[in-house]
Amino acid sequence: MLKSWTGALAGVLLAGGLIAQAGAQNAPIKLIAVGELSGAGATVGTNFKNGADLAIAEINAKGGILGRKIEITHLDTQSNPGNARAQVQKALDENPYALLGPGYSGSVKVTAPLVQQAGIAQVMGGEAAELTQAGIDTLFRTSFGQQSSMPKIAKYMAEDMKAKTAAVMWVNNDFGKGGRDMVTKEFAARGVKVVADISTEAGQADFAADAVKVKNANPDVVFIYLNEEESARALKELRRQNVSAPLIGETTLLGQKVIELAGDAANGVKGHVGLTTDAPVPAIQDFRKRFSDKYNYVPDHNGIKGYLAVYMIKAATEKQGKVDAKELPKTLHGLTITPDKEPGILMEVTIDKNGDLDRQSFLGEVVNGKQVIKEVLPKLNK
User: Ranges for the Leucine-binding protein domain (predicted)?
Assistant: First the structure.
């Protein structure tokens, strides 16, 4: 009788264990996004959030990742690094499969060490060069870092535009300082003298004094590296004061939000663009339509970043053949994702040992209120 009861109990426990195991294997994959949903970076964070949500909706509609649906929670940093750190700690307490964001480099800088300690992947939007040079093996970009983009745009100004002098207008945060340091280094290597080095503040409203400094310096080109809203204000003021030098920038300066806010002042602006929904790539055009249909506005590069972050995680998870959070960073390193195998990645991309990306990029110009791509630049290591 005792043997019979013991055997029955063991059977019940075994069945319960199998049910629990099956439940775990079918449980949703939990992602947590920590981003700038309010404050000065709300444009950045909202675009990233909407892009990620669109990707998740598409993936879930097709059965999820390895048969498991994705669930995502969004936490707001309020565009503040201190809040970002607190929200990431809160996110890690929930044991997510991976973390998305933040978008601001300063917030990534203070959160990445926490995520590294947890040993999970952090797929973020920050572009400061230093982020992936600190030896954090769990950090991955969704766009070019400044060490990849600044040589391209400096080369264009020095060689194509024949510039000998430049004014540099930059925002005084981790993003802006990193860009300023990298572009001035590239200028020096090409014999371009910086005749005005102008630091501005995040959220700055009045650029009159800065425009006067630029005008008085009389540079051959003006390189502008600010956040979206500040970029639009700076362009308006530079135009109002009749600064005649070409206005050149990076992805942010030519973004959709800047064009909308700056109006005619954006016309004629040129720059290197790592990600844009104006790219002459059919997959990106299809993404733009789906995003616009869902959210009723045209996304900027941050919308693409959020979308790609999810598809990078999907491709790596399917590559490793299992949902293993601690294995995911190892799988992402060195991974090349191609659109023929994962259409959601939009363009072929290779992730290097530092979490940096190599893929096509573009040279663009704002013409009649629209970003027009003038040239497609190939992968560096094709």
Answer: 29-369
Q: What is the DSSP letter of 218?
A: -
The burial class, CB within 10 Å (0-12 / 13-18 / 19+), for 63 is: exposed
- The β-bridge partners of 376 are 362
Q: Do residues 169 and 248 make contact, with C-beta atoms less than 8 angstroms apart? A: no
Asked if residue 1 is part of any domain, the answer here is: no
CB 169 within 8 A of CB 250: no
- 266 lies in the same domain as 306: no
Which residue's structure tokens are 């910086």? Answer: 194
Cβ(197)–Cβ(188) below 8 Å? no
Sequential DSSP letters for 85-146: HHHHHHHHTT--SEEE---SHHHHHHHHHHHHHHT-EEEE----GGGGGS--TTEEESS--H
| CA dihedral (156, 162, 165, 166) positive or negative | negative
Give CA–CA dist 255/262, Å, rounded: 11
Enter the DSSP assignment of 159.
I
CA separation (Å) from 110 to 114, 177, 187, 194, 368?
8, 16, 29, 31, 40
- According to DSSP, the residues that pair with 249 across neighbouring strands are 224, 271
pLDDT of residue 269: 97
Query: Residues 234, 319: one domain?
Result: no
Q: Which residues fall within 8 angstroms of residue 161, CB to CB, at 6 or more apart?
A: 220, 221, 246, 248
Q: What is residue 85's predicted lDDT score, i.e. its pLDDT?
A: 98
How many angstroms separate the Cα of 3 from the Cα of each of 12, 13, 14, 314? 14, 15, 16, 48
**Bond into 28 cis (ω within 30):** no
CA nearest to 300, candidates 332, 274, 322? 274
Tens of pLDDT, residues 102-139: 999 999 999 999 999 999 999 999 999 899 999 999 99
State whether 350 and 293 are in the same domain.
Answer: yes
Q: 350: domain range?
A: 27-143+280-357
- Specify whether 52 is located in the same domain as 137: yes
223, amino acid identity: F
* Contact yes or no for 320/327 (Cβ under 8 A): yes
Query: Is the pTM value of this prediction over 0.90?
Result: no
